[in-house]
Amino acid sequence: MTLSMYQASIPVFIRMLGNLSAILGKAAAYAEAKKIDPTFLIKDRLAPDMLPFSAQVQIACDSAKGCAARLAGIETPSHPDTETTFAELQARIAKTIDFLRSVSPAQIDGSEERTIVLKLRTQEVQYQGQAYLLSFAMPNFYFHITMAYALLRHNGLDLGKADFLGRS
Questions:
Q1: Model confidence over 9-31: pLDDT tens digits?
Q2: Domains in the chain, please, with CATH?
Q3: Contact (CB, 8 A) for 155 and 38
Protein backbone atom coordinates (compact mmCIF):
# COMPACT_ATOMS: atom_id res chain seq x y z
CA MET A 1 0.00 0.00 0.00
CA THR A 2 1.31 3.42 -0.90
CA LEU A 3 1.12 6.61 1.09
CA SER A 4 -0.41 9.44 -0.90
CA MET A 5 0.80 13.01 -0.84
CA TYR A 6 -2.50 14.01 0.76
CA GLN A 7 -2.20 11.39 3.51
CA ALA A 8 1.39 12.44 4.20
CA SER A 9 0.47 16.11 4.56
CA ILE A 10 -3.02 17.38 5.32
CA PRO A 11 -4.05 14.97 8.13
CA VAL A 12 -0.61 15.39 9.72
CA PHE A 13 -0.85 19.18 9.64
CA ILE A 14 -4.39 19.12 11.04
CA ARG A 15 -3.48 16.75 13.86
CA MET A 16 -0.37 18.67 14.91
CA LEU A 17 -2.12 22.04 14.75
CA GLY A 18 -4.86 20.55 16.91
CA ASN A 19 -2.19 19.46 19.39
CA LEU A 20 -0.69 22.96 19.28
CA SER A 21 -4.13 24.41 19.94
CA ALA A 22 -4.52 22.18 23.00
CA ILE A 23 -1.09 23.30 24.22
CA LEU A 24 -2.13 26.94 23.82
CA GLY A 25 -5.22 26.19 25.88
CA LYS A 26 -3.02 24.81 28.64
CA ALA A 27 -0.75 27.87 28.39
CA ALA A 28 -3.65 30.28 28.80
CA ALA A 29 -4.91 28.36 31.84
CA TYR A 30 -1.37 28.21 33.26
CA ALA A 31 -0.88 31.97 32.88
CA GLU A 32 -4.18 32.62 34.62
CA ALA A 33 -3.53 30.17 37.47
CA LYS A 34 0.02 31.45 38.07
CA LYS A 35 -0.95 35.11 37.57
CA ILE A 36 1.53 35.46 34.71
CA ASP A 37 0.85 38.17 32.16
CA PRO A 38 0.06 36.13 29.01
CA THR A 39 1.92 38.74 26.97
CA PHE A 40 5.14 37.60 28.63
CA LEU A 41 4.66 34.06 27.30
CA ILE A 42 3.49 35.21 23.87
CA LYS A 43 6.52 37.48 23.41
CA ASP A 44 9.07 35.15 24.98
CA ARG A 45 12.04 33.77 23.07
CA LEU A 46 14.93 31.49 24.01
CA ALA A 47 17.63 33.71 22.51
CA PRO A 48 17.80 37.40 21.59
CA ASP A 49 17.93 36.65 17.87
CA MET A 50 15.09 34.12 17.97
CA LEU A 51 11.54 34.87 16.91
CA PRO A 52 9.02 35.03 19.78
CA PHE A 53 6.43 32.41 20.68
CA SER A 54 3.70 34.16 18.69
CA ALA A 55 5.82 33.98 15.53
CA GLN A 56 6.48 30.28 16.10
CA VAL A 57 2.72 29.64 16.02
CA GLN A 58 2.22 31.95 13.05
CA ILE A 59 4.98 30.31 11.03
CA ALA A 60 3.76 26.79 11.87
CA CYS A 61 0.36 27.80 10.49
CA ASP A 62 1.91 29.50 7.47
CA SER A 63 4.05 26.46 6.75
CA ALA A 64 1.05 24.12 6.78
CA LYS A 65 -1.25 26.29 4.67
CA GLY A 66 1.55 27.24 2.28
CA CYS A 67 2.51 23.64 1.74
CA ALA A 68 -1.09 22.59 1.11
CA ALA A 69 -1.66 25.45 -1.32
CA ARG A 70 1.59 24.90 -3.22
CA LEU A 71 0.99 21.17 -3.57
CA ALA A 72 -2.61 21.79 -4.65
CA GLY A 73 -1.58 24.53 -7.08
CA ILE A 74 -3.90 27.08 -5.46
CA GLU A 75 -3.40 30.47 -3.87
CA THR A 76 -2.18 30.53 -0.29
CA PRO A 77 -4.55 32.43 2.00
CA SER A 78 -2.97 35.50 3.57
CA HIS A 79 -3.12 35.89 7.33
CA PRO A 80 -1.38 39.01 8.66
CA ASP A 81 0.84 38.40 11.67
CA THR A 82 -1.14 40.53 14.13
CA GLU A 83 -1.96 38.04 16.90
CA THR A 84 -1.03 39.21 20.41
CA THR A 85 -3.20 36.97 22.62
CA PHE A 86 -3.73 33.27 23.10
CA ALA A 87 -7.29 33.66 21.79
CA GLU A 88 -6.03 35.33 18.60
CA LEU A 89 -3.40 32.62 18.11
CA GLN A 90 -6.12 29.99 18.63
CA ALA A 91 -8.21 31.71 15.96
CA ARG A 92 -5.26 31.63 13.57
CA ILE A 93 -4.83 27.91 14.12
CA ALA A 94 -8.56 27.39 13.56
CA LYS A 95 -8.47 29.39 10.29
CA THR A 96 -5.53 27.33 9.13
CA ILE A 97 -7.24 24.05 9.96
CA ASP A 98 -10.38 25.24 8.16
CA PHE A 99 -8.31 25.99 5.07
CA LEU A 100 -6.55 22.62 5.25
CA ARG A 101 -9.90 20.86 5.47
CA SER A 102 -11.02 22.69 2.32
CA VAL A 103 -8.21 21.11 0.29
CA SER A 104 -9.22 17.77 -1.18
CA PRO A 105 -7.12 14.67 -1.77
CA ALA A 106 -7.71 15.12 -5.51
CA GLN A 107 -6.00 18.53 -5.35
CA ILE A 108 -2.90 17.19 -3.56
CA ASP A 109 -2.46 13.64 -4.84
CA GLY A 110 -0.30 13.49 -7.93
CA SER A 111 1.74 16.53 -6.86
CA GLU A 112 4.91 14.48 -6.29
CA GLU A 113 6.52 15.93 -9.43
CA ARG A 114 4.91 19.39 -9.35
CA THR A 115 7.55 22.12 -9.41
CA ILE A 116 7.42 24.19 -6.26
CA VAL A 117 9.22 27.53 -6.30
CA LEU A 118 9.96 29.19 -2.96
CA LYS A 119 11.08 32.76 -2.65
CA LEU A 120 13.23 32.82 0.46
CA ARG A 121 14.80 35.92 1.96
CA THR A 122 18.03 35.70 -0.01
CA GLN A 123 17.24 33.33 -2.85
CA GLU A 124 14.70 31.42 -4.85
CA VAL A 125 14.72 27.62 -4.61
CA GLN A 126 12.92 24.94 -6.56
CA TYR A 127 11.73 21.55 -5.40
CA GLN A 128 9.69 18.75 -6.84
CA GLY A 129 6.51 18.27 -4.79
CA GLN A 130 7.51 15.19 -2.83
CA ALA A 131 10.97 16.55 -1.98
CA TYR A 132 9.39 19.87 -0.98
CA LEU A 133 6.94 18.15 1.36
CA LEU A 134 9.45 15.78 2.96
CA SER A 135 12.65 17.85 2.92
CA PHE A 136 11.41 21.38 3.52
CA ALA A 137 7.76 21.84 4.49
CA MET A 138 7.44 19.10 7.11
CA PRO A 139 10.77 19.79 8.84
CA ASN A 140 9.99 23.53 8.91
CA PHE A 141 6.50 22.88 10.28
CA TYR A 142 7.77 20.58 13.02
CA PHE A 143 10.61 22.97 13.89
CA HIS A 144 8.21 25.80 14.68
CA ILE A 145 5.76 23.61 16.60
CA THR A 146 8.70 22.27 18.60
CA MET A 147 9.93 25.80 19.33
CA ALA A 148 6.47 26.83 20.55
CA TYR A 149 6.38 23.76 22.80
CA ALA A 150 9.92 24.42 24.08
CA LEU A 151 9.20 28.07 24.90
CA LEU A 152 6.20 27.15 27.02
CA ARG A 153 7.99 24.23 28.66
CA HIS A 154 10.93 26.52 29.41
CA ASN A 155 8.53 28.85 31.22
CA GLY A 156 7.29 26.12 33.52
CA LEU A 157 4.21 24.85 31.73
CA ASP A 158 3.73 21.18 32.60
CA LEU A 159 3.90 19.63 29.13
CA GLY A 160 5.08 16.23 28.05
CA LYS A 161 5.54 14.22 24.91
CA ALA A 162 1.87 13.20 24.98
CA ASP A 163 0.92 16.89 24.66
CA PHE A 164 3.19 17.30 21.65
CA LEU A 165 2.09 14.08 19.94
CA GLY A 166 -1.54 14.31 21.00
CA ARG A 167 -3.67 11.50 22.17
CA SER A 168 -5.05 9.04 19.68
A1: 999 999 999 999 999 999 999 99
A2: 5-156 (1.20.120.450)
A3: no
